[in-house]
Task: inverse folding
């Protein structure tokens, strides 16, 4: 077992740094391994030491090794390391780029890689999916319903149909994410773990995944001397994420209630309103931060794909709200029209998730979960990790 | 002769236009073809040979900043073409001073010379101004002392200008020097004494240069002598004045870890061995002669004149040597190390003073003790001889060096003196734990690597990895870092932290560079004429750089450079040819001279 990892790690890809440059990290080669970054990093510890070590693996071209590490997911990009780095090698941005790179490695289809490397491809794909969705819905609606009826008998897009449609899209999403998660598990827990991991540890630590998913505690833990207190980005991030999840649940499970009206059904709509507020505030906050980048190391170089997400999300929230208002005020034709636009944005946005940065929603909690399992397993073990002394 | 001129200059410099030089070259006698190669990495000798045969060339001129790079391939091509391989001539722009305003003319001149097969150096000797035989040395550190002694020993007059009250510079502060662990004072003090006793050296302490005019060979210099207020010749350094002086201020020589009086001697072996009065703190001077003045009354030799004023001295010198040395970067601006915040975080020079046998603790290494100062009614952290020795010490390398935010360059000596510190600490406190945090160990000199090994074997824990910060938790300092070789994070509790602070040019450097019209490099050190070929001259004839002021270096290198400078000065005095400004020789002069030499 021990040899296995060593042998795998020997494969060297001399172009790894150049490759990573396309994912955002441009200055990896400047690093001279002082270790300042690992020292200031609040999340770095004995077992998971970063970012310096990741910088080293990159410089050595050990892509197959990095693939099996969890460190990039344990970093929340508070930017301390990049501020400290004497060589301006930007380790924080490197970790961010590594997360993008890892997403593309976990992704079995290769789509993620394509998107990260070429914005044009991504935009074309998004537009393509949107047009297909629009065309399908229009065809379906016109063939069986009436454009001026929003719900009930003869509705243009009846809610039971939308429900099945949502479930279908949701299933696609789940399948992709599941496959990627399994690949991640394989890379990290099988190829990257040279010591045995008892199966029951997976059960014992399961709560961690849920906990990290809903609390994002580690984000809040970042101590930082940045101009705003760190809990602000954390709360906003949490709000954004919860909004996202609530909406997903509403749409997947309660869509029929959501769509009935024009009366407002507080039992579901209240959640919809709250989530919308969360999403709007979150989105605006992040857009503002990305535009006024001055003080924030972590927003200095937002990747172009980040913008696709933000723009789509904004469209979704906007058309969702409009459609809701039009419906309640009896403007059924307008409501149906905006609904189609809404869905044209929702579908590519959801389907894009497994191939974009936003899949960290799944990978991050998984990483915390795996990290703790490995830590526990190692402690139970006399075997020592083969130590890399670079 | 049928000549081919090949340019291997990639970029046009600010003042250097390759096309213009190429046009000029095309009109030179014998030139058949002119080609610009740019910087093609792999020229084929066979193709070049074809070119040579096609044009039946007999001489090749390669021109550019580094023409030597192409010499092998052209030599081969000449051989293939059956020509004389000695006829590959180089016209090296930068090497022959093609920079600044004269760049274009100078480059043309190098091409013209190479084209005629005349060595450039032979024709470009400037006609010299007659040289005044006295020399000015600015800065009395080991560099200034060495250069002065060499020149004076050759029988030539030297004026040594030092801004503080004593010569010796930084070396006088040290206890031991790496890697031999020789006693610094044992090497330096005899030299210092020779300076003051030498009949050919006029030592001017408390002085600085205020104006310089004139040309190479005859510079007129104005020197301001600040009042010392104590007659150097009659003072016997009994110290009675200091005993009675009521004023206490930080001692510069002790790097502010101790106090001195307003009338003081920097250190007991100071040269000249006389007290001086600090006008910035003396009560008598600050109160315009109303208060105090007690020292003048008590001096048994009556050599104190509190009313002395500054004087000016005008000198004529032929050569000027700059040896103004260095100082430490202000560490307080690198906040994470807690310098100024935690009492036992020291700079390297502070530690040198602490461990010095003639320092405030008699060479005992102790941590600071908290004492109540009755005068200021405040608690202070001070070094006292009976203080508690540290149980563990961390030495951090590269503080502000090799760091893009502060000094991008390596300060060169800190790795070695940090190892020296580790040795001294281990030697004086045997059961101490000593940690060195380094990024790369720069043991660059003779015997240095061995020295580094020795320290490792003495039990100092040398951590390959930098420490990012020093923290204080419950009155205990901790130093954290990544131990890269052992693949783990380390955290040590320490009682003392020594920072190997980066070095910067001394404060007056900018002023001097303006006054003498010589340039500084991007890091602020004085620029030498040519780093490889001429590291002691500057672009102005008759002005030289020695020691740390030209760039970080250790004492052996400093001394070597100072002696080399002295050789340059003596050459200009004794050769009879005088010194000229290399850049004052014009293109037409060079062409004419080249033609005469060629004809011969
Ligand atoms: C902590 C420490 C430890 C070191 N230990 C060692 C060691 O063990 N071995 C070793 O080889 N090297 C050591 N070095 C390096 C050594 O100090 C230098 O190589 C050497 O001192 C350089 O001498 P210098 O004469 O060029 O400069 P300096 O010693 O700095 O002398 C410059 C002199 O010029 C004077 N001056 C400055 N500006 C003016 C002005 N405008 N007008 C008139 N006078 C002026 C200054 O007052 C000073 O007297 C150490 C350095 C440090 C920082
Ligand atoms: S990334 Fe920067 S701070 Fe981190 S080890 Fe490299 S040089 Fe040091
Ligand atoms: S000499 Fe050593 S400690 Fe000093 S700057 Fe260079 S590498 Fe750093």
Result:
């Amino acid at each position: 077992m021990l040899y296995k990892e060593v042998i795998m790690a020997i494969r060297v890809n001399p172009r790894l740094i150049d490759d990573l440059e396309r994912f955002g990290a441009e200055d990896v080669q400047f690093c001279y391994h002082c270790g300042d970054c690992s020292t200031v990093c609040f999340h770095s510890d004995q077992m998971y030491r970063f970012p310096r070590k990741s910088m080293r693996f990159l410089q050595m071209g050990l892509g197959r090794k990095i693939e099996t590490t969890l460190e990039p997911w344990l970093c929340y990009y508070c930017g301390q390391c990049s501020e400290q780095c004497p060589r301006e090698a930007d380790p924080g941005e490197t970790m961010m780029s590594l997360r993008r790179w890892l997403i593309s490695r976990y992704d079995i289809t290769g789509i993620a890689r394509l998107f990260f490397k070429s914005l044009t491809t991504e935009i074309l794909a998004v537009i393509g999916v949107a047009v297909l969705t629009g065309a399908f819905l229009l065809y379906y609606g016109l063939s069986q319903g009436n454009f001026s009826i929003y719900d009930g008998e003869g509705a243009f897009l009846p809610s039971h149909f939308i429900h099945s449609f949502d479930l279908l899209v949701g299933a696609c999403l789940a399948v992709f994410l599941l496959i990627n998660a399994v690949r991640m598990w394989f890379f990290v827990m099988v190829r990257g773990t040279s010591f045995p991991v008892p199966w029951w540890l997976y059960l014992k630590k399961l709560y961690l995944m849920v906990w990290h998913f809903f609390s994002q505690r580690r984000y809040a833990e970042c101590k930082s001397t940045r101009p705003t207190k760190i809990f602000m980005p954390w709360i906003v991030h949490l709000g954004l994420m919860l909004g996202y999840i609530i909406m997903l649940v509403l749409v997947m499970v309660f869509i029929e209630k959501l769509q009935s009206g024009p009366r407002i059904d507080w039992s579901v709509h209240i959640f919809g309103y709250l989530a919308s507020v969360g999403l709007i505030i979150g989105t605006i906050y992040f857009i503002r931060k990305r535009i006024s980048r001055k003080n924030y190391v972590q927003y200095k170089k937002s990747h172009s794909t980040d913008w696709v997400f933000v723009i789509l999300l904004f469209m979704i929230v906007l058309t969702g709200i409009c459609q809701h208002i039009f419906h309640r005020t009896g403007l059924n034709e307008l409501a149906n029209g905006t609904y189609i636009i809404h869905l044209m944005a929702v579908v590519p946005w959801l389907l894009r998730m497994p191939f974009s940065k936003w899949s960290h929603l799944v990978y991050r909690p998984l990483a915390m979960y795996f990290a703790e399992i490995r830590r526990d397993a190692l402690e139970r073990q006399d075997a020592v990790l083969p130590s890399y002394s670079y | 002769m049928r000549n081919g001129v090949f340019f291997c200059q990639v970029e046009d410099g600010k003042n250097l236009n390759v096309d213009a030089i190429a046009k000029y070259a095309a009109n030179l006698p014998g030139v058949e073809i002119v080609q610009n190669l740019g910087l093609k990495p792999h020229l084929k000798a066979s193709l070049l040979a074809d070119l040579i045969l096609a044009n039946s060339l007999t001489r090749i001129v390669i021109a550019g900043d580094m023409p030597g790079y192409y010499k092998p391939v052209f030599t081969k091509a000449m051989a293939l073409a059956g020509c004389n391989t000695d006829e590959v001539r180089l016209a090296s722009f930068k090497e022959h001073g093609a920079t600044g305003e004269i760049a274009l003319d100078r480059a043309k001149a190098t091409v013209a010379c190479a084209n005629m097969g005349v060595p450039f150096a032979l024709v470009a000797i400037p006609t010299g101004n007659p040289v005044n035989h006295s020399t000015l040395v600015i800065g009395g550190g080991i560099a200034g002392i060495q250069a002065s002694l060499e020149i004076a020993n050759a029988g030539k007059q030297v004026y040594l200008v030092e801004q503080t009250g004593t010569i010796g510079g930084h070396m006088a502060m040290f206890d031991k020097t790496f890697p031999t662990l020789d006693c610094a004072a044992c090497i330096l003090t005899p030299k210092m004494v020779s300076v003051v006793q030498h009949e050919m050296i006029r030592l001017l302490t408390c002085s600085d240069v205020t104006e310089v005019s004139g040309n190479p060979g005859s510079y007129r210099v104005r020197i301001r002598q600040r009042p010392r207020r104590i007659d150097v010749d009659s003072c016997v350094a009994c110290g009675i004045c200091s005993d009675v002086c009521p004023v206490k201020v930080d001692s510069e020589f002790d790097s502010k870890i101790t106090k001195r009086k307003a009338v003081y001697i920097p250190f007991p072996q100071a040269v000249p061995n006389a007290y001086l009065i600090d006008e910035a703190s003396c009560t008598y001077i600050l109160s315009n002669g109303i208060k105090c003045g007690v020292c003048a009354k008590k001096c048994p030799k009556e050599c104190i004149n509190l009313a002395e004023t500054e004087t000016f001295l005008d000198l004529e010198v032929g050569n000027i040597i700059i040896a103004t040395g260095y100082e430490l970067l202000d560490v307080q601006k690198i906040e994470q190390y807690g310098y100024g915040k935690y009492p036992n975080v020291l700079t390297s020079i502070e530690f040198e003073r602490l461990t010095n046998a003639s320092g405030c603790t008699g060479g005992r290494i102790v941590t600071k003790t908290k004492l109540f100062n009755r005068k200021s009614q405040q608690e202070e952290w001070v070094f006292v001889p009976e203080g508690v020795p540290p149980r563990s010490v961390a030495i951090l390398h590269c503080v502000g060096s090799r760091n893009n935010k502060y000094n991008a360059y390596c300060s060169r000596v800190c790795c070695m003196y940090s190892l020296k510190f580790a040795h001294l600490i281990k030697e004086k406190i045997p059961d101490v734990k000593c940690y060195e945090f380094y990024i790369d160990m720069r043991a660059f000199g003779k015997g240095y690597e061995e020295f580094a090994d020795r320290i490792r074997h003495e039990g100092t824990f040398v951590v390959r990895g930098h420490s990012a910060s020093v923290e204080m938790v419950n009155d205990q300092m901790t130093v954290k870092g990544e131990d890269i070789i052992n693949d783990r994070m380390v955290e040590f509790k320490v009682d003392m932290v020594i920072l190997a602070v980066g070095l910067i040019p001394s404060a007056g450097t900018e002023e001097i560079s303006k006054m003498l019209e010589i340039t500084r490099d991007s890091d602020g050190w004085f620029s030498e004429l040519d780093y490889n070929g001429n590291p002691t001259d500057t672009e102005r004839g008759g002005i030289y750089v020695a020691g740390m002021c030209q760039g970080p270096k250790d004492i052996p290198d400093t001394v070597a450079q100072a002696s080399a400078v002295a050789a340059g000065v003596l050459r200009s005095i004794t050769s009879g040819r005088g010194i000229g400004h290399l850049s004052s020789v014009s293109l037409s002069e060079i062409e004419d001279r080249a033609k005469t030499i060629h004809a011969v």
About this structure: Chain B has a mean pLDDT of 92. Residues B 397-398, 401-402, 410-412, 414-415, 440, 442, 500 surround iron/sulfur cluster (ligand 3) (CB under 6 Å).
